[in-house]
Design goal:
The chain is α+β, with helices and mostly antiparallel strands and 306 residues long. The chain has 8 helices and 17 strands. The protein binds ligand PPE. The site of ligand PPE has 16 residues, from helix 6 and strand 14.
């Protein structure tokens, strides 16, 4: 389906999709001063529901706090606006993109006099790396571009500017024939994909990089850790040297857009059996069972749209 819907929520009200425009001198266009979220709304057996909405809103406000950005709405207002935007566009399932940015005011690096604006768009978005990737897995390559050092662009804040780096990683991966890249951190240890966290399965245990290795505190990441613990799978957050990627039994990406996508090769080296492994399959199943409403939402991860 097309990348659009009918209405965008912009600074407190709805406007038609095609009218959601900004001035070319908006601060964010020049200096990357935006923060955003990516959220999914699923069609469950009991109606549409948003996955981990309060956690995404909290991360949005956390990103704003890091960048000293005062959002002109409360978390409750943003939550209501997101649900209203889904309803207004009459979508049963969709991707949700709240975006806050420094708008048109004074130009120059100091953003303090620029108004902070907030927009919410929703549109249908299928499998991020392709429908068959969820089953077959994707080919990935370690990027020559590193994630930013912790004291440069903080990876704990989901800021627009961070995605200049993600774009370099993604474009290089595609140019090299991979579906996605894997970025190392400034010390050469494994960080994450251009828009996904990364998990290894090694000797039955689940391993992912700690937040100190330049990764986004992914909400899918935290959900997968919870699900693994419930399934009795040992989980560890520890520093992952590059070669451990090749030696893993299973590898997969997690993210709101990517959900749980297996990785079948890294740098043309086959991972495990070269197809989705059993631990990945179990976790995928547990995840999709919840977001489809097929099992009870015991974690209270779903916010009904109506
Ligand atoms: N790392 C990065 C760099 C990242 O952008 C995402 C989400 C994640 C990890 C996973 O976080 P979470 O969604 O909370 O599990 N990437 C978003 C944007 C993707 C895009 O192409 O735009 C997303 O998945 O919504």
């Amino acid at each position: 389906m097309a990348f659009r819907s009918d209405f965008i929520w912009f600074d407190g009200g709805f406007i038609p999709w095609d009218e959601a425009k900004v001035h070319v001198l908006a601060h964010a266009l020049h200096y990357g001063s935006s923060i955003f979220e990516g959220i999914r709304c699923y069609e469950t057996t009991r109606g549409s529901a948003v996955f981990r909405l309060p956690e995404h809103i909290r991360r949005l406000f956390n990103s704003a706090k890091v960048y000293r950005m005062d959002l002109p709405f409360t978390p409750e207002q943003v939550e209501r606006a997101i649900l209203d935007t889904i309803l207004k566009n009459q979508l049963k399932s969709c991707y949700i993109r709240p975006l806050a940015f420094r708008g048109y005011g004074q130009l120059g690096v100091d953003p303090r006099t620029c108004p902070v604006q907030l927009a919410i768009a929703v549109w249908p978005w299928g499998a991020y790396l392709g429908e068959e990737a969820l089953e077959q897995g994707v080919d990935a390559g370690v990027s020559s571009w590193r994630r930013a050092a912790p004291d440069t662009y903080p990876s704990g804040a989901k800021a627009g500017g961070n995605y200049l780096n993600s774009g370099l990683i993604k474009m290089e991966a595609l140019a090299n024939g991979y579906a996605e890249g894997i970025a190392l951190d400034v010390f050469g240890n494994v960080a994450e994909g251009s828009g996904e966290n990364l998990f290894l399965v090694q000797d039955g245990a689940l391993v992912t990089a700690p937040l100190s290795n330049s990764v986004l505190p992914g909400i899918t990441r935290s959900s997968v850790i919870t699900l693994a613990q419930e399934l009795g799978i040992e989980t560890k957050e520890c520093v992952i040297p590059r070669e451990q990627l090749y030696l893993a039994d299973e590898l997969f990406y997690t993210g709101t857009a990517a959900e749980l996508t297996p990785i079948r090769s890294v740098d043309h080296i086959q991972i495990g059996s070269g197809r989705r492994g059993p631990v990945t399959a179990r976790l995928q199943q547990a995840f999709f069972n919840i977001v489809s409403g097929q099992v009870a939402d015991t974690h209270h991860w779903l916010t009904p749209v109506e």
